[in-house]
Amino acid sequence: MVFLAFTGLYWLYSFSEKPNRLLLRVWYIAIALSAMVFILSVGFAYSSRTILSWNMWQAPVAVMCNAFVGGPLLTMTSYACAGCRFLSRRKGMQLLAISVVALLVNAIVYALQICDVLAMSNSLVSVAELVPAYWLAFAAFVVLVVAAHVLAWKMIQKLPRDPEEEVQVVTSR
């Protein structure tokens, strides 16, 4: 709720006749921090003792990594679809770098989680027997995110190098 309140009030204040730039920047930082707290709390909500595969250290870390993998990609896509004039090649590369690093960390976390989950069993069946294609699903996840990174990189190449350059509207062609 705090995250939503911060974003809603920021949005309303940004329409004022003369918004204070410093206040907007501080407010934006508060929004970013509250978003991270929200995402982390969602990760811990998944950490339930009744569901063994969720009651692992990897669950909240994976949720946080997924946010940092998908968030920058969603941001760039949203900016491109809106024809945003503030996205430069440098900013796009920074967002892409965040997503790529998060994917690398996420892949390690998922691999460790898969190893732990596949070792689980009860008196009737093992997880490895129930989900024989777990590693295949993991590979598909990595391949699809890498494909999204390639598409984002191609889109970034169409952006202006610096904010001072003439602004180009990014199309989805």
Architecture overview:
- The protein is mostly helical and 173 residues long.
- It has 2 domains: 1-45; 51-173.
- It contains 6 helices and no strands.
- Helix 3 (58-82) packs antiparallel against helix 4 (89-118), helix 3 (58-82) packs parallel to helix 6 (134-156) and helix 4 (89-118) packs antiparallel against helix 6 (134-156).
- It is flat.
- 15% of the residues are buried.
- The model has no long low-confidence stretch (mean pLDDT 87).
What brief labels describe this structure?
173 residues; 2 domains; 69% helix; mainly alpha
**Could you say which overall geometry the principal axes of the C-alpha atoms support?**
flat
Helical proportion, percent range: 55-70%
Strand content: under 5%
Average pLDDT across residues?
87
Largest sheet: none
Order of helices and strands: HHHHHH
Number of strands: 0
Distance between the termini: 38 Å
Q: Determine Rg (CA atoms, Å).
A: 20 Å
Number of domains: 2
Write a brief structural summary:
This protein is 69% helix and 0% strand.
